[in-house]
């Protein structure tokens, strides 16, 4: 596999304000790489540096092996970009907008644009000012895909979309990957990243905390578990099981946090009459807690 | 009309540009058509004014002539004012508005360099300014023909061109501030303020001794100081306006190329 994006100690400060600090990131060809972190963590800063909208304070970034500053034009030629809250020219129709951007890219195959529009059920004859947010997002995705770029850089592409359109978005991004393209996708929602990405980089307060395969991320994620029993139970029964912490019993119900496999605790619980079992999807915060350690902070 | 930034920018003006053109032409037509009727009265009235005020209002020697009348009535104030409103508004907004609204990121995600965006936007501004100037001149020429005013069409064109060059200089100033800062309000404010200061500097300098040496700092001096309506376009002065403009284009290119774009 070859490296599509590589950042080396990429650091960006806005005056004294932190953007990102010593970011070392590698995105491989053909993968969907999730860039996960809460708002303000530095995801957009990183992406805007890759596209040369802003310049690093320190460090460097290469895309396709090209320098993000010196070779920006070549990089942008081969990249499709879309951002969450995108604004388009309000005085154009969607078709005019796409034609304009197509020309700036040196021409795109219009039939392919129409094909994309049909799949997204996007009416290109509408003036952009009359489009809902979701419909504008669709135009944004079309312009990112229409020149069949090798690399997609998507900054929270589906935030605020209704679930149906979101699913179509996901399909198109996955298809691009299956086509051999690469995608860097930033998000602050874990399920989205779980669903789409092969690997995930977690960024918090400007620093890359970890890069994981989605599978192992889930494995290591903390999971909150509630088991209701038909009989009174004590905490001691479950104490000391591997990966289990924050044990608490209330009204015959056991609450706990489990890291990794649920197997030990399920086996232990199976010896007692179980009425109900609720396993909560690990939230992004809980995933973070895995890397920040300390169940104490978790309780706050 | 959508094949590049230049044409797209012109297209964005397809509603406002005809209004500007027609407005300018009608203004010019109106003023010049009135000359045979009020020119004489007007000259009498002006002769009663204190000489200093007459100098301020254009400083034209022969105020009873069509040239004197036009100088005072529209070329001393209305023409530069309107050109400056047009160009400063355009230059201050064309890139800064895209940046403030958030379309600039998307535009520059295309393989187009920043300097090209600046150059194409500047070119669009230059074309728009010249088109409005053309309409102004057409208004003057048609008016002069209708009202039988004896005045050189060429001289009117030269005076109009001088006004367009002045406008372009200030519009480029606004563009340069916008490119350097990304702030639309600031760039329009700075250019407008400097426009007002240099207008008064040029107007007062002949009257106030301490200002006299600074008159040549005012772009307005190079617009009207050589009385293009009577003497034709002073090439040296036109070159200074144009040079100032090109210098500001360079400032715009360099500052825009180097800075971080706002989100």
Word description of this protein:
The complex is a heterodimer of chains A (300) and B (263). Chain A has 300 residues and is an alpha/beta fold. Chain A has helices spanning 43-50, 72-77, 94-104, 110-119, 133-145, 163-178, 190-196, 214-220, 263-269, 284-292, 295-299, and strands at residues 3-14, 17-28, 32-36, 58-63, 66-67, 79-83, 151-155, 182-187, 199-204, 207-213, 222-229, 244-250, 253-259, 274-279. Chain A is 33% helix and 31% strand. In chain A, α3 (94-104) runs parallel beside α5 (133-145). The model of chain A is unreliable at 294-300 (pLDDT under 50). Chain B has helices at 5-12, 16-33, 35-47, 51-56, 66-75, 78-93, 96-101, 103-108, 114-146, 153-181, 184-204, 219-224, 228-231, 235-258. Chain B has 14 helices and no strands. The model of chain B has no long low-confidence stretch (mean pLDDT 92). Chain B is mainly α and 263 residues long. The A-B interface holds A 14, 44, 48, 51-55, 72-74, 76-77, 79-81, 83, 85-89, 91, 96, 99-101, 103-106, 140, 143 and B 2-5, 8, 12, 101-103, 105-113, 260-261, 263.
| End-to-end CA span of chain B | 28 Å
Q: Shape of chain A, please?
A: globular
Q: Approximately what portion of the residues of chain A adopt beta-strand conformation?
A: 25-35%
Oligomer: heterodimer
Low-confidence sequence ranges of chain B: none
